[in-house]
Amino acid sequence: MKKTGSQILLECLRLEGVETVFGYPGGTVINIYDDLMDSPITHVLNRHEQAAVHAADAYSRVTGKVGVAIATSGPGATNTVTGIATAYMDSIPMVIISGQVPTPLIGNDAFQEADMIGITRPVTKHNYLVRDVKDLARIMKQAFYIARTGRPGPVLVDLPKDVQMDSAIFDYPETVELRGYKPTVSANPRQLNKAISMILAARKPVIYVGGGATLADVSDDLLTFAETIQAPVTTTLMAMASFPQTHELSVGMLGMHGTFYANMAVTESDLLITLGARFDDRVTGKIATFAPHAKIIHVDVDPTSIKKNVRVDLPLVGMLQDVLPRLNEGLLKHADEVQEVVAATVGWREQIVKWKEQHPMAYKQTKSTIKPQYVIEKLRELCDEDAIVATEVGQHQMWTAQFFDFIKPRTFVTSGGLGTMGFGLPAALGAQAAFPERQVIDISGDGSFQMNSQELATLVQYRLPVKIVILNNNFLGMVRQWQQLFFDKRYSQTCMELPIDFVKLAEAYGATGMRATKTEEVEEMIKKGLATPGPVIMEFKVAREENVLPMVPAGAGLNEMVLAS
Amino acid sequence: MKHTITVLVENEFGVLPRVSGLFSGRGFNIDSLSVAPTLDPSISRMTIVTTGDQKILEQISKQLNKLIDVIKVIDFTNQNYIEREMLMVKVSAEAESRAEVLRVADIFRAQVVDVTPRSYSLEVTGTPEKLDAFVELLRPLGLKELVRSGPIVIGRGPKAWRSVD
């Protein structure tokens, strides 16, 4: 039977297991929205296309499924670009459907026309302009396959209005034929054996885990691996929740705002076992002094990540869900040698404990003024173990990474690579749409929050009970911190001089708002806020010029941390 | 260092900007690029000449391979291969220089493809170095216009690069 392009599109989504999509209607997607009324797929109407993409992105981050967003052509589609770039930098599998003007008008500067293939080329894993309805089913199959395999990423499908209206016989392909795309799946066994030999020879090993571990869902294998060889584990921002931060082998985050002990461990280590991380500049600091004594094993599914930024002694191209179990099996066969390594590395673990005691993560508590770190510690204490936390970008994001001890995988949703302010609120929305019964918290600053605050309307409309924590210092705090430390306290354009009444703002949207201004009010308000049904804003007036520490200044080595103000 | 890379790509709309955008977006150089369909009309073959150290070349090769539309990347740098480029040039040929232009053309086995009372248009193929030498000899005689195709390469021996092997 023949179906129209828009019907085929929705049928493809259904067959790919898509239950919820996020989007915003418009002239060139009106056919899709019409057919959506007859489809089992749930649609969430965001209040901005950027937010729709962030919500779909977060939906993917917490479920592991492919996130889907829809936007109309022209401004609708260009609004998605920041969202797509955010997902691209963090390797999140997504399919974005953008409407396009009818094919005869393409290139004519038609009303609401934008060259989305050209605009999104550098920020998508791949993109498609569908020019014939007969190609649509094949392209959708490929788009989902490309998005979720290998190193995942966003794929954009640009769908002209006339193609949505044209008809074709619908036949969803069973398989994908792409001769230029063969994502590496299984690691080379010889390289794997070499890795085991290197691990057995190490005396100061460190496991350095990146977002790849989150995407590959290998938390259990990672735990087994770390406990077998008894090596300290440091996680990047993207991997905080993939290893329990409360575990005795955890040394927390490394890099610019990493812990003293993680950065010292990496600097002194003799073997860096890198799992799904990419040696980002915020992680390595000055390359010349990064892990200077270490041999480096680099496991990654994307060959371009290997040797891009640092020298690598043993590259291992493969999926972590293949590599880690095989490493664990291999180590099991060398049980005696593993015991020797564990015994020989006692001193190394003692050294790490000494570093932890020397400079633990800390802040100066004050009697009256609320310290932002204290709010985050209390929040961890009082929320559910499996609560999902989204953040915006800035100081509050780093404090969350430092002071919120993540325990369960896929519970931390944050924009790592692109660092997108305004990500957190729509991300929390997307996470809550995926798990209506779980606690979902957006930890925010007053600056970032205002970049997508219109999503309060979406939360209230869909009864998504996200709890929003605003650490309000009336500053763009992270930039202010840089200005304080490196620009002689010249606070150029970082003071948010108009104080916003966030309580009233919440109430205007039909949500609940509450505010704390003193340390003694914090605990009570968090309890009350978490217990209040529906979306809630909890605003905390925090110490205005608190800094995120430790800090490795830009261009310095990991061992050159600023530890205190 | 100069490298010559051959890239087999899907012969489809929009593939060229993916490849050229990769070079510009990541700060790699393109010295020259030529592209045309192959024996299999669904595949196009690009020859790209680029410069950079070994590390940059490795990244270029990996990044090209990562593109969905790229089927194969072959680096000819350390292989035995034949390289040819085509050049067309319009030279002033007034009375006193007419004979000299033809003498130079003859030495380089260039063809005269157009002739007027005041100019010759010449066509020549060869390695880029040979073409450089040809241009230098013609320059004092009055070069009016110069077009080069960019080099193309093919490996020596019976092995053929056609599609996915």
Structure description:
With 565 residues, chain A is α/β, with parallel strands linked by helices. Chain A is built from 24 helices and 20 strands. Chain A has a six-stranded parallel beta sheet, with helices on both faces. Chain A has a six-stranded parallel beta sheet with strand order 11-10-9-12-13-14, with helices on both faces. In chain A, strands 16-15-17-18-20-19 form a six-stranded parallel beta sheet, sandwiched between helices. In chain A, helix 3 (49-63) packs across helix 19. Chain A is globular and about 70 Å long. The termini of chain A are far apart. By secondary structure, chain B is an alpha+beta fold. Helix content of chain B is 30%, strand content 40%. Chain B contains four helices and nine strands; from the N terminus they run E-H-E-E-H-E-E-H-E-E-H-E-E. In chain B, the strands form two sheets. In chain B, strands 5, 6, 7, 8 and 9 form a five-stranded antiparallel beta sheet that branches. The chains are: A alpha/beta (565), B alpha+beta (165). The A-B interface holds A 117-118, 121-122, 125-126, 129, 146, 178-181, 302-304, 307-308 and B 9-10, 13-14, 17-18, 21, 25, 55, 58-59, 62-63, 65-71, 163-164.
